[in-house]
Structures are given as C-alpha cells and as structure tokens.
Amino acid sequence: MSESVEKVKAPSEPLFSKKNKKLITDPLSDNNPITIQVLGICSALAITVQVEQAFFMSASVLFVLIFGNLSISLLRNLIPSRVRIIVQLVVVASLVIIVNEVLQAFVPDVSEKLSVFVGLIITNCIIMGRFEAFAMGNKPWPSVLDAVGNAVGYAWILLVVAIFREVLGSGKFWGMEILPQGFYEMGYMNNNLMILPPMALIVVGIIIWIQRSKNPTLVEEH
Amino acid sequence: MESTLDIFVKAIFSENMIFAYFLGMCSYLAVSKTVKTGLGLGVAVIFVLGVTIPINYLLENYVLKEGALEWLNPEYGINGSSTINLSFLSFIMFIAVIASIVQLVEMLVEKFAPALYGALGIFLPLIAVNCSILGGALFMQDRQYSTMTDAVAFGLGSGIGWLIAIVFIAAIREKIRYSNVPPALRGLGITFIITGLMGIAFMSFMGIDY
C-alpha cells in the first residue's frame, strides 16, 4: 500500500521488453497483490467457497482492472490531483456496472450468489491501489501489462483457496462430485469447517507462510 | 419480522462486517498495529456508516428502486404506465455519496482533531474505498429494510462491530510483538490466522439465532 510511483521511461522499447515482462511476472509471486501488497482481501475471501464463483470474480476483476488502468493511464495528464479519487471511483463504478449487467444477463445464478460482492469490486483495494501506484504515472501499454499481472496474481490465490475450500468442504469441484462414493462409505466426512468464512483467512495465512518461508527476503519485522 | 434491536445486535456480533463478510479488511490489516490508531479509524467508520447508510436508504427508496419515483408522478410508480427502474445506477450513486461524506469527515477531523489527523495519515481518504462502507450500503439495499430506523440501526451496529474487531486485533498485535512467532509467519501471516480464529469465536454468536 505504501508503494511509491514507479516510472517507466524509454520511448521505443519492444512490446515485451524485459522491464515489461517483469510487470507481468512480479505480481504473480514476489509482489503478489494479496499476499504481499495486502490489497483486495475484502472481496477475495468471501467468494471462495466455490471454484465457480471465484472464477467469475477473477474474470470480472481482470476486466475491470485492465480497462480501468487503461483509461486512467490515458487520462492521467488531464486529472487534477485534488479530485483524482472521485474520478477513479467514477471510472471503476461505470466498469463494474457493465460487469454486473453482463453477469446478470448471462450467468444469473452466479450473479445471485456473488450478490453484493460484484458491487464491492468498486472498493476493491487492488483496483484503486494500482490506479494510484501505477496508472497515474505510466503510459497505457505498461499499465495494461501491470493490470494483467496483478489481476492474474489475484486470480491464482483466489482459485487455490477456492479449490481447497470446495474440495475439502463439500467434496466437489465446480459443482461436480469428485470424491468417489467409496470414500464416504469408509467413513470419510466433508469438513464443514472449510465452508465457514474464518477458514478462508486461515488458508490464506498458510499460503503466506509457505511463500515467505521459501523467500526469506519477504519476512516482516513484526 | 426482525425488530430493530435484533438488527442492531446481529450487525455487531453474528453478522460482523469483518468476521462474517471480510469487509474492510484492507484498512483493518494496515491500521491495526496500535490500539490508538485502530480506535480512531473505528470511530471514523462508525460515523461514516451512521451517516451514509440513512442517506443511501433515502436515495434507494425515493430515487433508485423500481417505481421509487412515484412521488414525482404516479405514472412512474410500480403500477403506473411508465415504471422507471434506476437500480442499475445504484453503484455509482452510492459511491458518490460515500466519497463526498468522507471528504467532509476528513475536513472536520483536520480542523478539530489535528493530532488524530496526523495519526490516521493517509488512511482517512481510504475510508472512501473501505469495503465496509459500500458493503453496508449494498447489504442495506439487498435486505430491503422496511423503515429508516432499521437502516440506521444496521449502519451503527455494523460500525460498532467493525470497531470491536479492529480494537481486538490491534490489542492482540501489540502483545504478540513479545512472542516468538515463526519468522515466515510474522506480521501479515499471523494476523490472518488470528483473525480466522477470532472469526470462529464470533461464529458462536450465531447460536443465538436458533
């Protein structure tokens, strides 16, 4: 959250130069929006009970972040800095309205389950965080790459947590039974604790634990 | 039918914004290092929720809802010949109300409590993008509270629940500085796990429902 504005210069670099590639790969692990930058936790945890919801949520965030970063980056020299938060909110809110209408039209049952969390993409800190930290100070193309990197970094955490919770909690994947019936006959039971909200936090905590023990430079003081 | 008191108590405990819906986690994690700043932000959240939810409630019921514009012309009503449904505008309207109220709170705090303003630093503007504020408005819309009193009770209750959560975690984090936490889990990791455990404790309040 305390990230300073990064400057990308060089007018004629190749489309996928080293620096640009780094924009995509960095947020996947070492600068992951959820586990390192601590952005976008709000909506990330509540919709990870099922993989399907997590997938549609990630897709929506990907869409909103790419087009939001692109438009903010195009507008960056026109936005007076005093009112930039309002401008950013209007951009996100319009994109989220589009996403919401599309979800309601094509996947009404998913939209029903996501309920208020589609609207909460507006206040998803990833989006505002990337606008502030990157799109306000960079050209459109790097901003799009940055958006893709961060949205995918967000998506994989969401999907991993959702897979854990759905498989262990209800024995399903994408709504289909995947555990053989024999398991249950032998006395296996679904762990209902995984469906409850607090387990999402603990699963993310464990992911952070694994990630930081692999890369000690990320360890915090306290 | 739920009574107003029910809604209030439920919003604080069994449907706590943080432990049941994870709303406002970003500022919850970032500002909970000391009890003092946590308390300051918590009070700000109560205030903003207590003001924005009633305003958004009026907006929802007299402008946005299907047929809500009946007071303008009976034809626009739900049984009228040309019903108007503006609910697709609700996101943008709610966030505009929230952003302006937050701006107001920021100016008031800067004027009357400069010390608090210094302590909260950049986090006051962040209330605008605190999910719990917009989340409160959207839940209010989703659950369709029947009276204004219920909406106010829900807003204040959610705010108090949020304050309780952030003060608790801040107190625990102050103490945990003296414990021997595994290095990789320090800071963020342990905070997540503690929040999860607190969430499990708060879930037991759901028993009151039955």
Give the end-to-end Cα distance of chain A, rounded to a whole number of Å.
17 Å
Topology order of chain B in helix (H) and strand (E) letters: HHHHHHHHHH
Low-confidence stretches of chain A: 1-11
From the spread of the alpha carbons, the general shape of chain B counts as: elongated
Number of helices of chain A: 10
Rg of chain A, rounded, reads 19 Å
Large-scale geometry of chain A: globular
| Terminal residue distance of chain B | 15 Å
Profile the largest sheet of chain A.
2 strands, antiparallel
Number of domains of chain B: 1
Polypeptide structure, described:
The complex is a heterodimer of chains A (222) and B (210). Chain A has 222 residues and is mostly helical. Chain A has helices at 18-25, 41-46, 51-75, 84-106, 108-114, 116-119, 125-133, 140-170, 181-185, 197-214, and strands spanning 172-173, 176-177. Chain A is 61% helix and 2% strand. In chain A, a hairpin with a 2-residue loop joins strand 1 (172-173) and strand 2 (176-177). In chain A, helix 3 (51-75) runs parallel beside helix 7 and helix 8 crosses helix 10 (197-214). Chain A is globular. Mean pLDDT of chain A is 82; it is low at 1-11. In chain B, helix 4 crosses helix 5 (90-112) and helix 4 packs antiparallel against helix 9 (148-176). At the A-B interface, helix 2, helix 4 and helix 10 of A face helix 2, helix 3, helix 5, helix 8 and helix 10 of B.
